[in-house]
Write a structure and sequence with these properties.
By secondary structure, the protein is mostly beta strands. 0% of the residues lie in helices and 61% in strands. It has no helices and six strands. Strands 1-2-3-6-5-4 form a six-stranded antiparallel barrel. The N and C termini lie far apart (43 Å).
Length: 121
């Protein structure tokens, strides 16, 4: 049995926007990837910290967070969405977070979406 309890309604107090990547064709016939809003959902924010590094006098800050959301068929991983980072991103506090993984927690326990945000200063 997992150590994550069932999701209670009051726990999901953070709204996030989930964006799906879609391929479009520009006026020159090139395929480009664009974001389109899939849905807005309520989540529980689980802060995980981050780190700051310096490379060639450029400070790069990386923040890691996890969001617990209810089970959703639109977020289901299958043969077409085997890599969530290539298909989805999360918008939180006006920043787009890249998804590193999505973990299903079993019946009634939701999905943990692990994300990171990189800020080049």
């Amino acid at each position: 049995m997992s150590d994550i309890p069932f999701i209670k309604a009051g726990q999901l107090d953070t709204p996030i926007e989930i964006y799906a990547y879609t391929n479009t064709q520009n006026e020159y016939g090139e395929i480009t990837q664009t974001r389109s809003l899939l849905k807005t959902v309520w989540s529980k924010l689980i802060a995980k910290g981050g780190k700051e590094t310096t490379t060639d006098d450029i400070i790069v800050s990386t923040s890691k967070v996890e969001f617990l959301v209810r089970w959703d068929d639109d977020l289901e991983l299958n043969s077409t969405t085997i890599s969530p980072e290539e298909h989805f991103s999360i918008k939180y506090l006006n920043k787009y977070f890249n998804i590193s993984s999505m973990e299903y927690q079993g019946r009634g326990k939701g999905i943990i979406i692990k994300c990171y945000y990189t800020d080049d200063k």
